[in-house]
Amino acid sequence: MGFKTALQGSADATEKRLASLLSEKTGGAEALNEAIAYSALGGGKRLRAYMVREFCELCGRSPECAIDYACAIEMVHAFSLIHDDLPAMDNDDMRRGKPSNHKKFGEATAILAGDSLALDAFGTICGNSLCSPHQNEKAVLVLSKCAGSNGMCAGQQYDLDGEGKKLGIDKLTRLVDLKTGALFSCACLLGCIAASATEEQSIAAEEFGLLTGRAFQITDDLLDIRSTPEVLGKSIGKDIKSEKSTFVSLLGERGAEEFALECIDSAKKCLDSFCESESKKRLLSFCDYILTREK
Amino acid sequence: MGFKTALQGSADATEKRLASLLSEKTGGAEALNEAIAYSALGGGKRLRAYMVREFCELCGRSPECAIDYACAIEMVHAFSLIHDDLPAMDNDDMRRGKPSNHKKFGEATAILAGDSLALDAFGTICGNSLCSPHQNEKAVLVLSKCAGSNGMCAGQQYDLDGEGKKLGIDKLTRLVDLKTGALFSCACLLGCIAASATEEQSIAAEEFGLLTGRAFQITDDLLDIRSTPEVLGKSIGKDIKSEKSTFVSLLGERGAEEFALECIDSAKKCLDSFCESESKKRLLSFCDYILTREK
Which of A181, B176, B196, B218 has the fewest CB atoms within 10 Å, i.e. the most exposed one? Predict the structure, then answer.
């Protein structure tokens, strides 16, 4: 199976499992459940879920064993998008071609929908009977660390701090590594945990996630000035409007492209220590996809 | 040791351990760390932490073994207060006698501080080496369920839905059981998990939490009309202003007092099946305290 087929298959499996997990939550408030489903279901590329599943397979276990970890990280990703879009944060009205959560459900419910997804994600990990309590405990530690005050949330705070300021490339890289890279790394690590990978494999996986996350963000910066709202499903030109430093504003388009290519070359090298397999071939294609994606 | 001494000792131990846990998080953004510490440290009654620790002792293990669970639930409680105070939610400017988090740090950072505390709480549970991976896994499941889309967050959504409407006593009780009771129950259950309590003990503990949570909320409603901002450290008369149904608006002051007393009588009965101990005596005093507290 090639990369594109695997990515689509992974997205479908994740979507199906997520829908099933959410449908079990029937005790709550209707408006809240609707707002949660609106953002957690119905698409997205599910790249993080793919990485969880593919690293599980790369390390020798069926990706189905990591399906709940894949769902958990997509829940955390969905939560972060809902909160990022809020008026007090990036104030975005559109997401994936439709009104953002707070535009559809109001700010208060959007905040609660994000909160719920963040909180439910950890229960999803610990409800996973295909992994041991020890694996689930490790998975919670990794997700908490990568998403919390020393991970993604710190990246978002640096992003706020940096508005209207010119950051150096070092500070911007630190920001991006936290805001985007931490969750990419987390995805790879969750796959490793589900497969009981070695320490060496886990270190390589974490680095792979950080580098592909960095390249992903550079591509995002390029798409923000090159693409259209119709193709991206969200507003464009935001970075210029909010006077945020980006890899493009600091390095120029050509320099940003070169930096992304460097990150991807290094990411590919992280896979050197893994045995040859279909899974490894697909992860190499995933690297190219990160560079060439159009949305 | 009497109840008041135990409560103060528990609060001190929790505060100290929380400060230590937060100080380990030095990789993040300074403004965010400051906002987190502002709300997570510096007081509060720490009732939930007390319940975790006291139920651990009641079920036969030293409360120190449950200290990280106690910190985790206080982190989730602090997160919920930060988000509840936001302009889009209850729009409260004061909390514990000082400006609420968003008044001090701005809305965006307040949202992130709440998010961080929610996410970090689960890492705190799983970093607890005094309990087994199996215990930590159970603790995550319970906290996630009680706080997430079928627990506290659902209660907050019902609260929003109910503004300007007259709820029946059944609907108000469901709201309060989710908004307040779920986390009280969670606290008692976390103590049981840390002490490897029996199934029967855990069921009684959960019920005890729900009933004391309900009584706590009734007292809150009464204090909202009887106390002063100086004593409470937050604004009063909010319920009337936001046209929310409360136990007082539905049952009158006298009726609300009677209902709280009924809840506390039932809560005390939940302790019948536990052996006589200092811990049990203190929990009976805790019940009386819930009824008579002045802030």
Answer: B196
pLDDT of A27 above 90: no
ipTM, interface predicted TM-score of the complex? 0.97
Q: Do A144 and B126 touch (CB under 8 A)?
A: yes
Q: Is the model's pLDDT at B83 over the cut of 90? A: yes
**Burial (CB count within 10 angstroms: exposed 0-12, middle 13-18, buried 19+), residue A52:** buried
**The two three-digit tokens of residue B246, written as one number:** 């409360």
Distance from CA of B193 to the nearest CA of A (A): 14
Interval B125-144: pLDDT, tens: 999 999 999 999 999 999 99
The Cα–Cα gap between A155 and B99 comes to 25
Residue in B with minimal Cα distance to A32: B157
Q: How far apart are the first and last CA of chain A?
A: 23
CA distance B246 to B239: 7
DSSP H helical segments within A106-167, as ranges? 107-126, 133-147, 152-161
pTM to 2 decimal places = 0.97
Chain A residues with CB-CB distance to B125 below 8 A? 140
Contact list, B144 vs chain A (CB under 8 Å): 119-124, 126
Nearest residue to B117 (alpha-carbon basis) of A149, A80, A64: A149
In a mutational test of the B interface, the residue from A116, A178, A242 whose CB has the highest number of chain B CBs within 10 Å is A116
Number of Cβ within 10 Å of residue B72's Cβ equals: 31
CB atoms within 10 A of CB B265: 12
Separation CA A187–CA A205 (nearest Å): 9
What is the C-alpha to C-alpha distance for residues A104 and A51, in angstroms, rounded to an integer? 30
φ, ψ dihedrals at B95, nearest 5°: -155, 125
Straight-line distance from the first to the last Cα atom of chain B, in angstroms, rounded to the nearest whole number: 23
Angle between helical axes of A67-85 and A107-126 (0-180°, round to 10): 160
Residues in chain A: 295
Min Cα distance A277 → chain B (Å) is: 33
Q: Which of A189-198, B11-20, B39-48 has the lowest mean pLDDT?
A: B39-48
The CATH number given to B3-292 is: 1.10.600.10
Write out the two tokens for B284.
């009976």
The answer to whether B92 touches B237, Cβ cutoff 8 Å, is: no
Task: State chain B's maximal CA–CA distance in angstroms.
Answer: 53
pLDDT of residue B237: 73
Specify whether the CB–CB gap between A112 and B147 falls below 8 A.
Answer: no
Helix, strand or coil, per DSSP, at residue A98: strand
Domain map of chain A by residue range? Answer: 3-292
For the record, the structure tokens of B274 come out as 């536990």
Helices and strands of chain A, counted as H and E runs: 15, 2
Type of residue at A226: R
Q: How confident is the model at residue A26 (pLDDT cuts 50, 70, 90)?
A: confident
Q: Please report the beta strands in B120-220, taking only residues with DSSP state E, as ranges in sequence order.
A: none
Question: Nearest CA to B113 among B19, B22, B244?
Answer: B22
